[in-house]
Amino acid sequence: MEMYKNYKGKHVVVVGLARSGVGAANLLVRLGANVTVMDVKGPDELEKYIGKLDPAVTIKLGRHNEELIDTADTVVASPGVPLNIPVFARARQKGIRIVGELELAYQVLEELRKSGAAGFLAITGTNGKSTTTTLLYEILIHSGFNAIIGGNIGKALTEEISKLVNDFERPREFVSPDYIVTEVSSFQLESAEKFRPKVAAILNVTPDHLDRHITMDDYLDAKCRIFQNQDQMNFLVLNADDPLTPKIAAKVKPMGPEILYFSRKNKVRGAYYAKGIITFNIPELEVLCPELVVNEIPVFHTSNFRIKGLHNIENAMAASLMALVSGCCVSDIYTTLMSFKGLEHRLEFVEEVDGVKYFNDSKGTNIWSVVKSLEGFEEPIVLIAGGRDKAGDFSPLKELIKEKVRAVVLIGEAAGKIRKIVSGVTEVHMASSMYEAVMKSKEIAQYGDIVLLSPACASFDMFKDFEDRGSVFKEAVLRLPGSRTALEAVGASV
Questions:
Q1: Is 249 exposed, middle or buried (0-12, 13-18, 19+ CB in 10 A)?
Q2: Which of these, 83, 132, 388, 391, could form a disulfide with 210 (CB 3.0-4.6 Å)?
Q3: pLDDT, average across residues 187-210
Q4: pLDDT per residue as tens digits for the range 425-449
Q5: Cα four-point dihedral sign 400, 404, 407, 408
Q6: Is the distance from CB of 422 to CB of 428 less than 8 angstroms?
Q7: What single DSSP character describes residue 458?
């Protein structure tokens, strides 16, 4: 097959050894390539990834060895590695093909599709990607489809595709999935060439990762690459309420995908929210779900959903539209929405202590994610924020903090920058650790309040990642006097 011809016996250099780098390297070995992985980090930092590599992979750590590029037939870029560094410049100068990890996975899958393998359902956006991707996957599974989830969430796409290649080589064991459900980041999309999902969604676009993309136009262009190869047989789901959506829609070519919208503010072609109910407005609904007629469609009362917050209503509408055009029935969508609990570290309820509810939104790594989270609460909020700044403008938080936040407790490198913005509109406290931030929040919060960790920043100044940050927050909350863990400890000692 072509996927073997492209790489068999060829020297491929993978730049960046992390989750995606491991997946890409191991997939390439399976395709018969001679693979070298390079990374500027040392073996101590990359120990957990080194152990996952196929023994056939050559490993070069501590620096990017530009000389290796000269012997490469192809260079694979891991998503976390910027495309403007010298090793890629050298590859371009030498006329050596550069392919991203997402593109590698897609092109191999395209070869498998000739034998009946799946198409992509791809989701991007600044906020809500992981929740929407997981929800769509759950709907597909509930509807009886064989689906795989991967990408910027869960396992690397190349790791999942590698498993399919392995099964393909043993025809009796090969079961073709119906769909690959993938969360794709702007970093992954930067290097997309032929990537063409059957259904794509852009949930929202607000300033983020400007330390890498530099300008909003560059960031928006990267997001729009998700639909650059789509045609009339494909669908694109957009947020009608996002100010940048008209600019996005204008980039869709004349023979491009059919656009469906979701909205919390207006009736649109697609799905809209009004008076606590989600309504689908798709004239072809009976064709998409032929066993239902309109008067049998369940009423989508969002008060019955387990996931809360206005942003999760948007996520639910986006996932539902993608599921509908992928062949899922409305009844299956509704049942899944009723039972879906949401994801860890995404506005996750942790505990109620002395009448105060604690929520972990550690995934809120940018300003607009925090805005969505704050909008989802009616109660007064004590907000824990801060971390490593991603060249963000924190000023959009000012009015909402004035309206909704009783006090802000700041941590991390960006604490001083945020304090300059919010001082004078609410109480501001500084903390040197997450435990201290939680203790201060407990002292400040009153009965009926919300304590919300929603940092608006990256985590790498104090933690391994946002999951580590969220876990430390939860541990601190559960150590508070009056928490269930503390009470159980007291009970056990009696």
A1: middle
A2: 391
A3: 86
A4: 999 999 999 999 999 999 999 999 9
A5: negative
A6: yes
A7: B
